Amino acid sequence: MxxxxxxxxxxxxxxGSISAAGFDHTHEEFSRILKAHVxxxxxxxxxxxxxxxxxxxxxLKTLSKVSQKEFTRWNESQQIAYLLNLYNVQTLxxxxxxxxxxxxxxxxxxxxxxxxxxxxxxxxxxxxLGHIEHEILRKNYEVPEIHFALVCAAKxxxxxxxxxxxxxxxxxxxxEQGRRFLANPAKNRVDxxxxxxxxxxxxxxxxxxxxxxxxxxxxxxxxxxxxxxSKQLRPDFRxxxxxxxxALNEQKN
Length: 253
Fold this sequence. Notes:
The protein is built from 13 helices and five strands. By secondary structure, it is mainly α.
C-alpha cells in the first residue's frame, strides 16, 4: 500500500514537472504568426489572419492550458512575457472576430467595451483585456515599460513587434520598444528651443506608473531618448500631449 501511494505521488510530481517544462517560453508559435502578418511598418494584415486562423487558435489554446499553479512557478520575466503575449494575441483575435472594423473603439455599444468584455481564458476563468492590464500587470509588477508592449490595435499604440515577447530577451525587447516609440515624432518629440515635450497620451493615462519608477514622466523618458536630446531635456520642460490615433493598425491588401 505504501509503495502504491509513493508511486502515485511520484507520478503526480512527474506530471507537474513535465507540464512546467513543456510550456514553450520562447512563444515561437506566436512569433511565426506575427512574422507572417505584421509588416515592416508594424501594421497587421487582419484579412489574411482572419482567412487562416488555425495557427492563431492553436496558440491561444496553448496559453489557455496554463494553470495558475504552473504560472506561479515561473520567474517574473516568464510571467510578464506570457501576459503581454496573451493580451496582444487576444486583441488580434478580438479584431478578426469583428473584422472589418475601422477602430477597436467601434466594438460594443458602451465606451471601452472592448477592454471590459470578458472573453480571455485565464487560469480557468474568463477575464477582460482590462483585467490583464490593470489588475495583473500594473498591480503585480513594477514595470511601466509594459505600456510600450501592450498593443490595442490602434495606430496611436506603440508598434506591434513581429516577434513574441520571451523571458530571456524581455528586458532588451522592452528597451527597444521604448526607444522605438519615443523616436516616432508623430507621437513623441522634444522641442528644446521652446522647452516643451510633446508626448503620447499614454504618458498621461499611466503617469503614476512612470512617476513611481523615475520620479517624473520626464525623468522616465530620458533613458529612452537619443543621448543628444536627453542631455538637453530639463525637469521643468512643459509637457503637451499629442493626438491619439484610434484608427485600426491595419495593413491593406
